[in-house]
Amino acid sequence: MKKFAEKHNLVKVAGIMVLITVLLTWLIPQGVFQSGSLNVTEITRVGLFDFFTYGLLGMYYFTVLITFIFVLGAFYQVLSRTKGYQDLTTGIAEKFKEREILFTLIVSFIIAAVTALTNEYIVVLSIIPFIITILNKMKLDKTTTFATTFGAILIGTIGSVYSSKIVGISVTSFSTYGLTYSTLLWARLVMFGISYLAFNTFTVLNILKTKKDKKHEVAADMFESKETNKNSRSKAWSIALIFGLFVIITLLAYLPWNGAFLKEGATESWAAKALASINGAEVFGSPIFRFILGSVQAFGEWDIFGVQVVMLIAILIIKIVDKMSFDEIIESFGEGFKKVGKLVVILLLCYLVLEFAVMFPVIPTIINWFLGLFGKASEKVVLIFSTLAGTFTSMFTVEYQYTISLIGSYLVSAHKEFYSQIAFMLQSTFGLASMFSPASAILLIGLSYLGITYKEWMKYIWKFLILMFAVIIILMIIIC
Predict the structure, then answer these.
(1) What is the share, in percent, of the chain residues with pLDDT greater than 90?
(2) What is the per-residue pLDDT across 316-329, written as a single tens digit (0 to 9) for each?
(3) 293 lies in some domain
(4) Which of 14, 126, 246, 409 has the largest CB neighbor count within 10 A?
(5) Is 17 exposed, middle or buried (CB count within 10 Å of its CB: 0-12, 13-18, 19+)?
(6) Is the pLDDT of residue 49 over 80?
(7) Range scoring the smallest mean pLDDT among 312-316, 337-341, 414-418
(8) Rounded-to-integer distance, Cα 289 and Cα 277, Å
(9) Tell me, what's the pLDDT at 6?
(10) Is position 241 within any domain?
(11) CB contact at 8 A, 335 and 225
């Protein structure tokens, strides 16, 4: 049992969080906020049958996330077997030799910025294995590698600027109060800037420390391939072209062209117009491009299945370019699926916490009790302490929309004049909680990928967490 706990540390951590969530349903009655007040019902416990039922339902509810992880594993397992991919990543690593700090700062900024803008931040994971392979060949330690990749995604959630999955949820939920993407934009930009600079200060210090000590564990590369395809014909430039097109298409597909980037007064985005023109173009009297593309959505409107289709198409192109046999492709799929299997288990455990938190809503009861302790305090003081409520709730919700559904409407209806401040606070505390919560899917997937224990991560990040919580409070004081 001890060996299992050590080997599967993050599964244990996520499992404990699941059990804590279940235990709360046995002790605290459910509560639902309605019109600014709490409607408390009876204690409704998660039973044994409920536990396994919701566990199985998680695979149904979040199928798209599971298939995304599996297809991602297959994609990079195929890539890793090509000589061109190995030459490309080795070439980039050698180019930035002795310039590791510059490389990590540039890469982490790009990843954080894209996360802060994109519709589906989980899609950013599609480029992470590529970066990890390069950092592995640069012999950087595993903590630096995590911070530069998965950590940068988490920074992008703290300082989300236009992301439809975060800012867009607030805008949609509180649109009746007048909230728009431009509301408190300056505060979101400040949050992004401070979190990026503070986080990467720790990263740089860690790089300098490990280079001085020369005793560190190099980042693990899950898709490291000891041997490439025997008949590999690909060159670095050909793989760079294929991968580059994949990245460009993915980036364009998930930016909010039809949301935050849509011009005022416009009814459709440039992407929607472009797709309509392509679909309407005829060759010999037939809309051939519409037939070829099928039911593709315009850029800015893709769901998570879209990037998976692009990865599968890229695999077919790689097969042709690299002269891979179908046997090698199938073998790579099997190996890739096996390697990411543990990540899928962790993902499902994180979302199981979410299921129990939403289907057995005891968190509103806890939050109502906590904020009730400040009943005689001023409204602004209550809002400042609501940062704790937002952080606590976000520890159980995995996705921001569920933080809003559990406590967002209550806070806004109770403090209508401060709707924009509440939206900013909830977004920031959700991002902060994602950096340490045992139910944070991005965090636990990243730690598992790189072989970092939860204890090791908390030892590294606790000072940053305290700093950023203080920054959130200070910004709340300023904007309130």
Answers:
(1) 57
(2) 999 888 888 888 88
(3) no
(4) 14
(5) buried
(6) yes
(7) 414-418
(8) 10
(9) 58
(10) yes
(11) no
Torsion of CA 321, 325, 328, 333, to 10 degrees: 70
Residue 93: inside a domain? yes
196 closest CA partner among 129, 136, 109: 109
**C-alpha dihedral (60, 24, 12, 398), degrees to nearest 10:** 50
Rounded-to-10 torsion of CA 58, 61, 65, 67: 90
For residue 158, which of 478, 477, 464 has the smallest C-alpha distance?
464
For residues 456 and 462, give the distance between their C-alpha atoms in angstroms, rounded to a whole number: 10
Cβ neighbours for 63, distance < 8 A, ≥ 6 positions apart: none
pTM above threshold 0.85: yes
Residue 286 located in a structural domain = no
Q: pLDDT grade, residue 348 (50/70/90)?
A: very high
Asked if pLDDT for residue 7 goes beyond 90, the answer is no
CA dihedral 359→364→366→368, nearest 10 degrees, is -160
In this model, does residue 15 exceed pLDDT 60?
Answer: yes
At 168, the amino acid letter reads G
The 3-state secondary structure of the chain, one letter per residue: CHHHHHHCHHHHHHHHHHHHHHHHHHHCCCEEEECCEEEECCCCCCCHHHHHHHHHHHHHHCHHHHHHHHHHHHHHHHHHCCHHHHHHHHHHHHHCCCCHHHHHHHHHHHHHHHHHHCCCHHHHHHHHHHHHHHHHHCCCEHHHHHHHCHHHHHHHHHCCCCCCCCHHHHHHHCHHHCCCCCCCHHHHHHHHHHHHHHHHHHHHHHHHHHHHHCCCCECCCCCCCCCCCCCCCCCHHHHHHHHHHHHHHHHHHHCCCCCCCCCCCCCCCHHHHHHHHHHHCCECCECHHHHHHCCCCCCCCCCHHHHHHHHHHHHHHHHHHHCCCHHHHHHHHHHHHHHHHHHHHHHHHHHHHHHHHHHCCCHHHHHHHHHHCCCCCCHHHHHHHHHHHHHHHHCCCCCHHHHHHHHHHHHHHHCHHHHHHHHHHHHHHHHHHCCCCCCCHHHHHHHHHHCCCHHHHHHHHHHHHHHHHHHHHHHHHHHC
Residue type, position 464, single letter: F
Cα 443 to chain centroid, rounded: 8
Cα separations in angstroms, 26 against 19, 221, 361, 447: 11, 42, 12, 31
Single-letter code of the amino acid located at 446: G
Residue 108's alpha-carbon distances to 131, 151, 231, 355, 396, in angstroms, are: 10, 8, 35, 32, 26
Tally the domains of the chain: 1
Asked if residue 35 has pLDDT above 70, the reply is no
